Structures are given as structure tokens and as C-alpha cells.
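::Amino acid chain::
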Amino acid sequence: MTDHPGRITKVTTSHWGAFEVDVEGDRIVATRPFREDPNPTDIPDSIPAAVHHSSRIARPSFRRGWLETRDKTGRGSDDFVELPWDEALDIAAQEIGRICQTYGNEAIFGGSYGWASAGRFHHAQSQVHRFLNCIGGYVASFGSYSTGCAQAIMPHVFGKTFIQFQYEHQDNWHTIHEHTETLVMFGGVNAKNAQVSMGGITKHDTGPWLQRCLEKGTYCLNIGPQRKDAPDGCDWMPLRPASDTALMLALAYVLHEEGLSDQDFIDRYTTGFDRFLPYLTGDSDGQPKTPEWASQLCGVTAEQIRDLARRMAKTRTFITVAWSLQRGEHGEQPYWMSAVLAAMIGQIGLPGGGVGYGYGALGGVGKTMIGMRGMTFSQGKNPIDKVIPVARIADMLRNPGQPYDFNGRREPYPDIRLVYWAGGNPFHHHQDLNALHQAWQKPDTIIVNEPHWTPTAKRADIVFPATTPYEREDIGRANLDEYLFHMPKLIPAVGEARDDYDIFSGLAERMNVGQAFTEGRSTSEWISHLYGQYCDYAAKTGIDVPTLDDLRRQNWVRLPIQKNTPNTTFFAPFRADPDASPLPTPSGKIEIYSEAIQGFGYDDCPGHPVWLPPSEWMGTADTETPLHLVSPQPGDKLHSQLESALADTPGARPVALILHPQDAKERGISSGDLVRVFNKRGACRARATVSTDILLGVVALPTGAWYGNPGDNIDPHGNPNVLTLDVGTSKLGQGCSAHTALVDVAKL
């Protein structure tokens, strides 16, 4: 209880961590930081306004054109008709059944990419995918917009365990603090991005750990176009976007030329260096990858490159690679080349040495936990084996039947007639949103479960109002967090919103798969069942967890599962004995050259890392689009969640665009000015922030603003994805190319 009569305070959790919630009657009235978080985020401040926002969807809604004539062309411009729940579920079930019977389940795309809720049971993707599997399956997607390219390339380099390594088994901050002398951060390590983590991050300690490293005397170097991608106290090497591979190649050239590389490590733990070396020296293409060559591409002096290479070879060096590096054309190359560079230094498998990925991208990277699995709502088995790369949805909708390449496969895109989306907002995170809007008109029907009238909901035919995490009971647990939470139902459902589980239960019953979907369990029975499985797993691990009733009473508990030993590193067994502990690659070693990739015959991703310039970068800038656009994650929310409330804050929209003083002066722009950011794909408004913390010729516009109307000449809110390029990173990875975009800026 609090000092306010009638006010109840509970703790809940989210992808951005735990926080206290004050409730009065049927309303959330305030939030406060969780007392065990040393560096809490202020993202929860927006929750009371967002939960009760006027953009909440009140009742099941049908786009008028679709309801009356099954018209497909009015998505994004039609008005909506509200219907009672029973009638709405009847119509939706009939339409889903029609698609299945007429075209087969290969005509259904189970989208639902997005973070949704942090709760274990009310996980939107699991809910919709379980339902679709119960009715015969769906076309699925591979990877994520954040790491899809890396998820494709790096298993070829380090083996299939790379995915687990990337999220859960990298050097922890204790190890880095204790052993690392030189921390080289390609793309920085930004504590802003580490505010969030999949399933939640209770202690936000990325920033504090970096500060401890600086205080100890660790040399920390931020390499990238923005100074603020690392804390104050780190050195900054301003680097042109998309040129990281060229810099890494030049560093490798110096190591080889000056005899600083660890040839014993290369011989014992890697394969294919002899195939890569002629490219590095220029014997195969006539261009040695010297610091002088790289300097022209990167904007870094040749002497800086040589000095850095010598430092990296002579100190315990840990290379971190931000997710942003692989979110552009040829994004496979810097990830692959970072592994080669670390192998040449020869410290992979030593505490605080080698290479790591995604530090600062998620709050949990840099934590080591005792694995605690369980509490997963089973999606069942998908009878349909068609999977597309997640970022290729617009291509799929535009080009049914057209073949495409992906990681050694060549298959035709399916002919999608129905899209079902729950727990995500593609009209925030996809590239070239104006083009996606056109492709979105292709399917017969689009169904969305959503609490708010997001741009995606406004472009659906059938919209079911879904509850937020604060209107239902759940359990919060994450693989990279040592806390366990009971997430209480804090308020009644707003309007006529229903849980995703109840929505899909209603559809499943109408489609004669009710028992298969629910297994006869209510929501509370499912939570009890899943938690029981978790307790059984915990008992086998030797970890005591409270009963569900006790957890409800306690609200949260900290489990003794964090391992803070400063001498652990994932590749230590491999380094100790590569024969006894081989990597899961064809050679059992780090693949500097991959016979498999070479065998694919891709011109945009050959058998070893290479420098491949993207189609749009500072090297191709012209008078029409002279500036390179980067689109980092926002600092005030997770992707586009809570945007409805944030957009109401005076002066908060359009989003702030950061540009260099010289670029601003040439355009007559001052901080605070409204500006137009534009290229041939679209235009958006933004509010200028002039700063020396960004490289000349580069502008930064964070993601997160809700997409406006493509009929307008300019997106009013500042969504950078009206400007970004929607092409795959390569035929191998087919990831998103968000950071491949040239623009210009003009004062409004």
C-alpha cells in the first residue's frame, strides 16, 4: 500500500526491465523505478498515458471496403466498422477457412515479428503461431531485422552454436573488466540501446560496467560515425558508415606485414587463411589492402590504422561488433572479417580477448547465467516447411512465384493471400515503407491483433483489440536475467479488449480445433502448467524457486543463477583442445574461407571476407543525396512501443535529426529548426539538432515514430524508414539494409 488512499502498488516487468506500478481503481496512474535497478530507464514513465490512450482499439473493427465488397485497395485510407465479438470471430474464422480451402495453408503468412509482451504465456508470436499450426500451418520467417544477416553468415564461420553464443555465452563484463586492456568497439557500445533485452533486463549495468573499465585504465575505442555510441571517456575514431570491413582489412594487413599476427593460432584453430591471404596482400586482385587504401574509404588516417593494429597485437584486446554493422548491404562482410581479425591477433578463447557481438545492443549481453529453461507456450509443429528471410516480406508480397536466393537455397516466393499479425508493427521497422504500403495491398485479407491503432492496424481488414501486459496475469523470466516475476493483472481490460489467447481460442473453436489449441486449459491453468514445468527444470538444476502461490505473494524473486567469475570464456575449451572440442563447422575450426559459401556461387558474398561497397554510401554520394543516413534505435522506448503517448508530448514530434555543424551551415539550419529529410523513396519531417558528435556528411534519425500516410508528400512524424533501402544484405543473408541510404536535408 502507499500513502494514497485506494492506491495499490505492484511490481511488474517488461522488455525494458522491472518497475513499480501505481493503480487507482481501473487506471494506472504512475510508475517508479524498481529498487534493485542501479541505473533504471525512464521508459516506463509513458505507460500510464499509453495504456489509457485514445488510440486504444475499443472493439473488433472491420475495414469498410473489405467488409462490404472484399476490396483490397483501401488499406490505410478506409474507415472501420465495429462489430460484436461473436460476429467478428465468425467472419474471421470463415475467411481463414476459405483461404485454407481455396489456396492451401501455404497462402497464409504468420507474420507477427516483434517484441510484444515480455510475459511467458501471453507471448503474441507463440499464440498466433500455435493457432496457425493447429489449422494446418503457415509460411514462417527466419531471423530478425536486428541480426538476420549475422544469423545467416556466422554459423558458417563459428558454427551453429553462434546463435546461442551471440546471446548467452559471450565474455561477461566481469571478465572484460578484469582482463581486457584494449576494447575496440566497432559501432560503439551504447547504453541507450542496452535499456532493453528480450524478456527483460532488471539491472541496467552496461553503462556502469563501461565506466568501471575506463576507471581501471582500459583503453576503450569507439569506431563509428557517432561519438555518443560510447560513453564519455572513450576515444572516438570517426568512421564513414559501411567502411568497417575496409578498416578491418587494413588492420589485418598491418598485422601480417609487420609480423604481428599469431601464425600458430591461425594454423591450429582456423582453416582457409591461405585462400584469404592473396586477397589481403593484393596478389589476387592487384589491390593490397593497405592502410593508405583503407584511409581513402574510411576517412581514417593510415597512421591511425597502423597505431591501432600494433596496439591490438601487443595488448589483451577484445573486439566488439555492434548489430548495426550487419544492417546494410554486404553486412555479412564486417561480421566475418571481425572474426578473421580476431583470429589473426590470436586471443580467441582467452579471457577478455577475441571478439564479441551485440554488446550494447541488448542489456543482457555481457551477463553469464546458469541456464534456466522452461515456461514456453508450445507453438506445436508447423506442417508447412516454407520459410522466408524475415526482412523480405515486401518482396514476397510483390513477387509471388519469383525465385530468390537465400543461404544456399533457391526457392520461389509463396503466393500469400492471408497475413495474420499479432504483437508487432511492420510499418515501423521495415524498410522503404511507401513501397511496403503498396505491396500490402496484394493479399486478400490482413488480420491484426493489436491494443492500439498503429499504422499496421490501420492497414488491416480485420482488427481485434488485444490487451496490454497490464490487463492480464503472466510470468516474467528471461534467459539473460536472474530475476523471476509474477506479472499481476493490474487493471481490467480497456474497452472490449481480449487476451490473444482468448481471441485464438474463439477462432480455434469455430474452426473445429479448439481442443488442439487450448488442450482444455484456461489461461490460469496454462500459467500453472507452464510454471510447474519450470519448477521441475529448476529442481533438476539445483535451483530453488518459489511455488506459484508464493511467487504471487512475493511478486518477484532474485534467483542465484548469475555467474560472475572473471575467467570464463565460451571458446576456452576449443582453444585448450580443438580436436577434443571442435567447433560445429565443416572443418571443426574457425572458417576464414568457407567452401560451402564459395560453392553457393554468390557474386555478393564469395568464399572469404571482402570489401564490397554498397550501392548507397558516402562513396556514391552526389548533389541530390549527399548525406549518409543512419537510423539508430530510439532512447525513449522499445522500437515503436508507447509511441502513441510519446507523440503527444509537446515538441517531441517530429523526431530529432542529428547533423554536423558544417552540413547544417551549408543548408541554413540551426538546432530546433523543422527540416525535410528526403530522397527518391520518400520524405519525412524532423527537428534539427546540430552537433559535433556526428561525422561530417552523416545524419542520424532514430526509428520509432509511427508511419503516416503515403498519400502525403512528407511523413509528418519523422520515421526514417520512408527513406531506407529495402534490399537484402546479400543472396546469402538477405537481412535488412536499413543503414544503406543517402538523403538530403532542407530547412522547412
